[in-house]
Amino acid sequence: MADAATKEVVVVVGNGMVGHRFLERLRKYDTSKRYTLVSIGEEPVQHYNRMLLTEYFEHLSIDKLKLAPPNWYAENEIELMTNAQALALDTESRKVRCQRLGADVPEGDAQFQVPYDRIVIATGASALVPRLPGTNLRGVFVYRSIADLNSIIAHGEIQAKIEAAGGVKKYALVVGGGLLGLEAAKAVHDLNVSVRIVNRGTRLMSRQLDADGAKVLHNEIVNKFGIDVLYGKSTQEIIGSEENGVEAVQFTNGERVDDVCMVIFATGIKPRDELAHASGLELAKRGGILINDYLECSEPDVYALGECISHHNVTYGLVAPGYEMADTLAKNFTCGSPEDRIAFPGGDISTKLKLMGMEVGSFGDYFPEFITEPFEELTYNNPLEKVYKKLFFSADGRKLLGGILVGDTSDFVRLSLMYKQKDAKPLVDPPNEILLGKRGGDGGNTVLDLPDEAQVCSCNNISKGDICQAIKEKNLTKLGDVKKVCNVGTGCGGCMPMVKDILEAELAAAGAEVDKSLCEHFAYSRQELYQIIQVEQYATFAQVLAQHGRKQHDPRSYGCEVCKPTMASIFASLQNGHILKGDRAALQDSNDRFLANLQKSGQFSVVPRVAGGEITADKLIALGQVAKKFDLYTKITGGQRVDLFGAQKQDLPAIWRLLVDAGFESGHAYGKSLRTVKSCVGTTWCRYGQQDAVGFAIFLENRYRGIRSPHKLKGGVSGCTRECAEARSKDFGCIATDQGYNIYVGGNGGTNPRHATLLASDVPQELAVQYLDRYIMYYIMTADRLQRTSKWLDALEGGIEQLRRVVMVDSLGICATLEKQMSFLVGTYECEWKKVIESPELMAQFAQFKNTSENQKEVHMQTVRDQRIPTFVAHAKGRTDSGTGTESSSPVSTTSVLSDLDDRDWVSFGSKDLFDVNGGGAVLYGESQLAIFNIAESCNGIDRVSWYAAQNMCPFDRSFVLAQGIVGDLDGRPKVACPMHKRNYDLADGCCLSGDDLRLQTFEAKEEDGVIYVLLPPTDAVDARLATSKFVAKDGDAPAEVEVTKTPAALDW
User: Fold this and answer.
1) Residues 806, 924: one domain?
2) Is 259 within a domain?
3) Where is the Rieske domain (predicted)?
4) 266, 178 in Cβ contact below 8 A?
5) Which residue, of 74, 90, 587, 729, is most buried by count of CB atoms within 10 Å of its CB?
């Protein structure tokens, strides 16, 4: 180890992602500790992940963006200077002159000098703002730093409140249609401010996408988010006044956009080369610090990295090349001699992104004008599934030269590796299979098929081999440990699904047991529990928990929000009883609990079944009458149905009584069950039709309706190969031929679209039904929890060939069993809503409160486009306490405010029979909503029941839903899972068990002589903190400030 006298001082100017990466790598490679490290950053906080800036709008926590904990610098013996700007280098005396920033800096202490032996400039880039009139007006922003985002949020909140109070609707204009522009547009959209994108060119993402790929992205942005894109527009002037700020934007073509409240420039970056310029370093003609292949500047011992440089006239605006530079320079600082140095070869500009929910990727040479050899291109364009792929091959088909992927980037790693190895490893598979995948549906490419050199994490340049080696050498068994040791998932996070697959594959290959257990309460998978319940014929959750739970003899083991809905689904698949009868109700998840889809407002949506999309005029009129009577928002769904939004829980039975009387039945949009079987008009109307697609779709939908499965099921029937019903994007699909139907299985749309795989061709309709019966029951019997048929087919050993053997040849000898179970489910079907409105006991479950027939308004509604929708305004998200208005960076509980009051009495809330066993219910106390819960303290029947009480409002998003949550335990601590976002709260002390700094107001509860009592302060004391009206918007004002989440907890519920 070097002594203090011989140590060299390395100063890094710039505390961003690349500067931090260099420090991290140098500490790793400098095993002899020959360097003393100093980091200088202009921002008042330590480095954070700029790639995740958009997520900042969701949580407003800088800590969640930081790349290392606060003590990282001290632990690594690095001196960190924040809020300091480097002004100039004195390369002769080897000192850097700096300026302290901030209003509280004494005038005489503003400037200081830092000596160095070597200095690394990593000052990054700044947002490019065109020199136009009006750019200094209030309301003009860039999208680059936390400070920028805070300014945008504050401005957006003001506009949202103005509009909520009846003010004029105004727009935010985002200038720039590239990556930053789209991120900025999404962020402002999430603030409930209307957005328009202004793009000088004719397509979005013009550096990554061609016209057809950009069209797919454009349609997603317009259709999903309602964001307008103005093409071919160059901004000439920002119009406004000092008093009002931005008011309008004038374009060079003479057009003008009025009613503008905000302008965000996202038109590119410019290298931060001011320090180099002030120090006399050589700059590139178009800006950027000139460096050679060893990242050296024009003066000795001065280096530069990241976005501030120009390397062979290229400035990189991506983090991956910056990380590669940082790694290269750190290795060169610690190599034995100058001859051992490595050169920076240039950065990989391949990109894999997710913009507004749409996956986008590009690699290699993907524009024909830049390809320097003869080539051929292959294109797959499916606008129905929102997938576009274009690959460029050498003329002989032996090399992959580049490609564009939109909507599905699942093959990005595999394809980009083929490109990187194009000169060393000629292609083996034909280009059409590389584009579309091999025929036969064998489950597709898995991580096992990737070579060790395949890059898994492009942000940190981590290969599959790196991850596999770390797993083996360090005996890693948990995903979090792999993430920490390998430094994966710390950038964009998009690599984590593949990292998880690699971990599981390595553990399985090593003979280690891969933990497939359902949750902390059961050491079995869903498939194993299905078999146990089937063989033992259990009928209750308590029986299964007592006999097969991990903690069979622990009376404090109650289950959780994972195992309870799973058991409910298995019971329904095997026994098909009503899901709300008996103790089944308390097992149901958010939507099944009230046979409707829980919305972000706490209201529900209603979706009656419209089998095959066929509906009479009378039924359409009936839907309209119901919607008008209950003031419901109506929308046509992608499954050929009508969705009615905004129903109150207590109104659901009345709504469904009218619908049932009109001939409708439950559409099960709320369940993990069959949703729809979509159809085209087939031979009924279409001149191309081969079979009666509508009739067959109606038959299939009515056959499989209500059947519970591991995940939702969707079907489709197309009358010819034109495929108007999109049958190949469904869990099962039938495409008519002149001989019958081609049957496809294992497809899905959604986040990762997948084409279904051909199971059988030209199958007569009766045989097609038999194959589908067997396929669906085999899936229900063997799939994991929340596993779609596509993933199930991928994981099925033998893939589609094995499935064919099982359902077509009966290779396992179980087809008779599968058909018998399907026949039972079909024969015992009953409309769940029809049974509810026939049962006063079931209808009582839908009352808003258990102790009164009074109803309370929980949501403020406004009229938009002639329909009623809930009012959502942007709020200061730091205020997420349980009721107070205290401003803080983290939530503050009101527990001490209420619980410490001496004036408390036991208040009666009615019979214990009003509340579901192992469940909860809402009660009204004054103007405040409380939730009362009970948990049976025994696994072998109810020996003792514990009662708990808390506020009914979830402090995370202030929706009044906690009483509807699933109760259970976490390591013996009684808890409730919020049905909205699955945050868990301790029922005893109210603290959040999901990692958030949140807390419930809890109260002591008990049962005496069959009556439930809660120890409470007077109503005025409780109402002062928890009155519902305090958190609901009113006409003319804004609601209480609340954090609005966009990211649920990590549960696919």
Assistant:
1) no
2) yes
3) 906-1014
4) yes
5) 587
With contact defined as beta carbons under 8 Å apart, do 1004 and 1015 qualify?
yes
The DSSP letter of residue 720 is S
Say yes or no: 261 and 158 in one domain.
yes
**108 CB neighbour count, 10 Å cutoff:** 6
Contact between 929 and 1026 (Cβ < 8 Å): yes
Whole-number pLDDT of residue 1043: 40
Query: Which of 566, 596, 595, 568 lies closest to 582, judged by CA?
Result: 568
Domain boundary among 313, 340, 367: 340
Euclidean distance between CA atoms 953 and 1001, whole angstroms? 9
Q: What pLDDT does residue 106 have?
A: 75
Q: Is residue 73 part of a domain?
A: yes
> How many C-beta neighbours within 10 Å does residue 485 have?
15
What SS3 class is residue 882?
coil
Q: What integer pLDDT is reported at residue 276 of this predicted model?
A: 95
170: Cβ contacts below 8 Å, ≥ 6 apart:
159, 163, 193, 194, 259, 260, 261, 262
Question: Cα(1026)–Cα(77) distance, rounded to whole angstroms?
Answer: 48
Q: Answer for the pair 612, 639: CB distance below 8 angstroms, yes or no.
A: no
Q: Which helix (H) or strand (E) is 714 found in, with range?
A: strand 713-718
CB contact set of 1000 (below 8 Å; sequence gap of 6+): 882, 893, 895, 950, 951, 955, 962, 985, 986, 990, 991
Domain range holding 465? 452-514
Taking the CA atoms of residue 438, residue 782, residue 527 and residue 981 in that order, the dihedral angle to the nearest 10 degrees is 70
Judgement on whether residues 883 and 1017 belong to the same structural domain of the protein:
yes
Please give the pLDDT value at position 368.
92
Helix (H, G, I), strand (E, B) or coil at 746: coil
User: 467 and 439, same structural domain?
Assistant: no
Please report how many Cα atoms fall inside a 13 Å half-sphere around the Cα of residue 236, on the Cβ side.
Answer: 10
Last residue of a domain, one of 514, 534, 551: 514
Please check whether residue 203 is in contact with residue 197, taking contact to mean a CB–CB distance below 8 angstroms: no
Beta partners for 678?
716
Do 538 and 434 share a structural domain?
no
CB 234 within 8 A of CB 249: no
Q: Output the CA torsion 148→150→153→155 (10° steps).
A: -70
Which token pair is 146?
A: 């936390």
Q: Which tokens in the block code for residue 769?
A: 């039904």
- The answer to the question of residue 1053 being in a domain is no
Q: How many CA atoms within 13 Å lie on the side-chain side of 955?
A: 32
Name the 3-class secondary structure at 458: coil
Q: What is the CATH number of the domain that holds 120?
A: 3.50.50.60
Residue 553's pLDDT is 58
Report yes or no on 2 lying in a domain.
no
Using 50 as the pLDDT threshold, list the residues of the chain that sit under it. Answer: 439-445, 873-897, 939-940, 942, 1037-1053
